[in-house]
Amino acid sequence: MRKNPTVQRESLGAAVLQVRSGRATSRTTLSRALGISPSTTGLYVDHLIAANFLNESGLNQGAMGRPRRTLTTHPEAGWFAGVEFNAQRIQAVGVDFSGRLKTTVEVILPSEVLAGQVIKSILACVARLAETMQGPLLSVGLGVPGLVDVQAGVGLYFAFIPDWQQVPLVELLGSKLKVPVILQNNLRAIALAERWFGLGHGLSVYVILGPRSGFGIAMVQEGRVIEGAQHAAGEVGRWPWPLSEGVGNSHTLHHALSAPATWRRLAGVDGQAKLPEDLRAGLAALADAAGPEWDAVCADYARVIGMLHLVLNTGVFILHGPLTMLGERFCHSITESALTQMPSLRDTGLKVVPSTLGDNAGALGAASLAMEAWLPG
Amino acid sequence: MRKNPTVQRESLGAAVLQVRSGRATSRTTLSRALGISPSTTGLYVDHLIAANFLNESGLNQGAMGRPRRTLTTHPEAGWFAGVEFNAQRIQAVGVDFSGRLKTTVEVILPSEVLAGQVIKSILACVARLAETMQGPLLSVGLGVPGLVDVQAGVGLYFAFIPDWQQVPLVELLGSKLKVPVILQNNLRAIALAERWFGLGHGLSVYVILGPRSGFGIAMVQEGRVIEGAQHAAGEVGRWPWPLSEGVGNSHTLHHALSAPATWRRLAGVDGQAKLPEDLRAGLAALADAAGPEWDAVCADYARVIGMLHLVLNTGVFILHGPLTMLGERFCHSITESALTQMPSLRDTGLKVVPSTLGDNAGALGAASLAMEAWLPG
DNA sequence: GGCTTTTTATTTGAATGCGAAAAAACCCCA
DNA sequence: TGGGGTTTTTTCGCATTCAAATAAAAAGCC
Fold first, then answer.
1. Kind and range of the H or E element at A370?
2. Contacts B227 to A, Cβ<8 Å
3. Which pLDDT value is given to residue A142?
4. CB count, 10 Å around CB of B64?
5. In this structure, are strands A181-185 and A137-144 parallel, antiparallel, or unpaired?
6. Which of A237, B43, B268, B274 lies 20 to 30 Å (CA to CA) from residue A192?
7. Nucleotides of C under 7 A from a protein CB
């Protein structure tokens, strides 16, 4: 046994992330993934096994040579909470130390809810998760709607919760939970969820499309989420729309391509028509629709996506939110329409795909935040 | 005197960059800028002074305490070449080790020039620079038009040089020049020039607007240039335009807002009118123009910039190319128009400014590439 | 001038991380 | 059964880097 020097917590945290993600399964692969020497990697692993964060689970014989001693994260070393909310509901997930989703909790918020009540409910959700999770809570990730100051840990502004201004979330939650609390805008958190749990796995460049009550996007370039100078990148919903409209009026992409607006257009009802009780079900019923409305909606999405693709040269667009109920066919129609409208995009790998993560993508993304921020020790 | 251990070349290169940029002026400030300990910083500086890359130039007394021993780069330790070209001309600059522009060379290319001839001319330009520069050539940066594979060192495609496809520039030039050769798209190189020599100095988020024969942009987020999945980010020029146009026809932003198109619109002549011999002078003559054409052009620019700002939340847009001849007033009009068209942008710090770098911004950007890539030893 | 205060630079011993070589663990093949 | 080949892991000595203490250089103040 080697002697046991102290090592940098950051390095150990990075090592755990590599093992948990499956990118590294042995000391040698971990050494390559981290870009550090095999000898140092061995020390790290010793340390992490001694602390019960990693396990050695048997051998894995390659084509030849000494078999690698498989490294896995110890699932019961602790757990991470991921919480996402908006003005209607809170979704929370509990994720074990191996990054597997174990428990979900959902709470419907009363209408006209205020910030204080949201925070109380978040704490209650985490407490309920704790009942079923193994080991200690290690950190909490929070997917926050609206503008978020990630560094300061403050929710800056969200239109649909009346007093949601300058809410010091990290301070309020951290003091109660006694673990690190990490914030991110909820759509940008989803981008992280795709990296950990979904289609963004190997990708370093992609865009999340989030048509819900509005229309926002989250952009990932070289593995990094684009924040913008005031944490407000991705506000495509405020583009004038239709693009031919004179400016200065209130026609925006929000109004044309949000999830409710899309349902209205596909269902052929006017702006006053009441939305279905369950928008997702309403949209699912339209998945086989056809005709000029379908084509027009797809053409609009294609126009936006094509323009974004020209700016960012992104490749993959991942569709999130209720509209995923329209299925693969919707995404395929959009891709086709974009290539028809802008033929020069044909060789640029433009692709629109529906997310496979389902309804709690935001909470999973928040849990990803928590996992990425955690450090051993 | 301390003993003289070998140190990492990368660290030494980073230290030189900090001193050259003026962000670090003494051992202590350098230590903070690099995020390493004062003791190690002292070793680095010893090393670099011994190798004649840095100088100690006197003392600088602060408000109190021991005065800092001012560090400067040694101007004659060597020089960097920056070369930018398009189908018409090559511009090359020689920059001394302190980052000061010393010599410029311009060569007009014959029409229908081919790749081989361009490369020969580039080598000739560097040779002419060498006649006036002090010390050895250390590295060469190249601002390449069209698509560029930065990692592979290959110019992929450029429409206006007939056989410009898969040109192995780093291989071709490096084998002759015997120094590192670094590529970047010419507009993205300009983004670096702004960081070193211009308005991007303290900024970590900004956009370069490059209306020339077409219309491209270069985006910087958190100090990093956005490349895109296929090195093709920033192709805004291929947006359909006017936005109200039906798609599928050839109306693009290239045609509406390129430098020649802008001149035609402002001068009130039709698409067939001959361009002035010197487009810059022609544009300068219009700098005091007024009336509906002026407003319409500004409104178009404002529309594009506003939409980009919503996507990227960028803050500062730096205007490059011939249109800078339209002056501050043009940029001011655009900013005003954007805020009128999209009032919600008012508090987001949106600002359009003309570059102060002048005509050889591209070559200066290429020189920045060279400086950033160089390592001592 | 001598004293304290403040900031910068250097020395020193300790430790973290690396490279190279050795050891280990498996395969294949005779 | 044992040797050669291959890949993984560990050992070991060394070097780069750090933290802490120390030295240095000035201003301010009495």
1. helix A361-373
2. 221-222, 313
3. 98
4. 6
5. parallel
6. A237
7. 5-13, 15-21, 23-28
SS3 state of residue B153 = coil
| Residues 6+ positions from A51 with CB-CB distance below 8 Å | A376
The residue with tokens 């123009």 is: B289
Flag if A341 and B228 touch (Cβ within 8 Å).
Answer: no
Query: Which candidate from A239, A312, A341 shows the least CB-CB separation from B233?
Result: A312
- Please list the residues that pair with B207 across neighbouring strands: B219, B317
Q: Which nucleotides of D are covered by protein (CB under 7 A)?
A: 5-13, 15-21, 23-28
pLDDT tens-digit profile, chain A (377 residues):
455 666 788 999 999 999 999 999 999 999 999 999 999 999 999 999 999 999 998 888 877 889 999 999 999 999 999 999 999 999 999 999 999 999 999 999 999 999 999 999 999 999 999 999 999 999 999 999 999 999 999 999 999 999 999 999 999 999 999 999 999 999 999 999 999 888 888 888 999 999 998 999 999 999 899 999 999 999 999 988 776 555 445 688 988 899 999 999 988 887 677 778 888 888 888 888 778 889 999 999 999 999 999 999 998 999 999 999 998 999 999 999 999 888 888 888 899 999 999 889 999 999 999 999 999 97
* DSSP codes joined into one string, A263-321: HHHHHT--TTSPPPSSHHHHHHTTTT--SHHHHHHHHHHHHHHHHHHHHH---EEEE-S
CA of A350 to C1' of C9 (A): 56
For chain A, domain boundaries: 9-73, 77-193+361-373, 202-354
pLDDT of residue B271: 67
For residue B232, the distance in angstroms to the closest alpha carbon of chain A comes to: 6
Nearest to A158, CA basis, from A69, A108, A84: A84
Provide the CATH number for the domain formed by A202-354 in this structure.
Answer: 3.30.420.40
CA distance B216 to chain A (A): 9
B9-73: what fold?
Arc Repressor Mutant, subunit A (1.10.10)
B contact test, residue of A231, A295, A310, A336 with most B CBs within 10 A: A310
Cα(B244)–Cα(A255) distance, integer angstroms: 18
Neighbours of A293 (CB within 10 A): 15
Residue B250's pLDDT band (boundaries 50, 70, 90)? low
Q: What's the rounded Cα separation, in Å, for the pair B347 and B343?
A: 9
Question: Cα separation of B23 and B246, whole Å?
Answer: 51
Give the closest residue to B240 by CA, choosing from B224, B258, B255. B255
CATH entry, A77-193+361-373, from 3.30.420.40, 3.40.50.620, 3.40.50.410, 3.30.980.40: 3.30.420.40
Which nucleotide is nearest, taking the CA of residue A37 and each C1'?
C18
The model's pTM:
0.91
**Separation in Å: D24 C1' and A260 CA:** 72
Q: What are the φ/ψ torsions at residue B325 (nearest 5 degrees)?
A: -65, -20
- CB within 8 Å: B227 and A311: no
Q: With contact defined as beta carbons under 8 Å apart, do B102 and B71 qualify?
A: no
Buried/exposed code over A160-195 (b: 16+ C-beta within 10 A; e: otherwise)? ebeebeebebbebbbeebebbbbbbbbbbbbbbbbb
Which residue of B lies nearest to A248 if distances are taken between CA atoms? B341
| CA A168 to chain centroid | 22
* Closest alpha carbon to B218 in B195, B202, B241: B195
Fold equal for B9-73 and B202-354: no
Residue B133 binned pLDDT confidence (cut-offs 50, 70, 90)? very high
Query: How far: B63 CA to C9 C1' (Å)?
Result: 17
